[in-house]
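Throughout our pipeline, every protein is held as a single compact record rather than as scattered files. The remainder of this section carries one protein's record, kept here as part of the documentation.

===
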Amino acid sequence: MNINPIKTEQDYEATLDRIDELMGCAVDTPEADELDILVTLVEAYEAKHYPIDKPDPIEALKFYIEQYGLQQKDLEKYIGRSGRVSEVLSYQRKLTLPMIRRLHDGLNIPTESLIKDYELRPRM
C-alpha cells in the first residue's frame, strides 16, 4: 500500500478511482485499511476544496415542509399564529431561538439547519 496526500485535482480523481476499485472488499484486510485511509483523505480534500455552506434556514424549513407534506398551519404550534408563520416563510421575520428549539424538538429538524443568520427581504 503506497498512499500519498491528495494535492491536485488529478490526485483526487485517481484516489476516487482507487476507492471505487476497493469498494466491497472484505473487512479486516489490507484493502479495507487502504479504503479507510483513502476515504479519510478524500473527505479532508473535499472539506478544503469543496466546502458546503450551511443551508439558508427558511429554505431548509420549506424543504422540510415539502418533503413531509406539511401545511403552513402545521407550523403554528412551533412558530406562532398563521400570520407569524407567513412572515417567517416570506423572510419578513427571523426565526427566534425559542422557535428554533420548538422546530427541533417537535419536528426533529437539525438545529444546524436553522441557526444560520439570513437577511430579511423587503415586502413586495
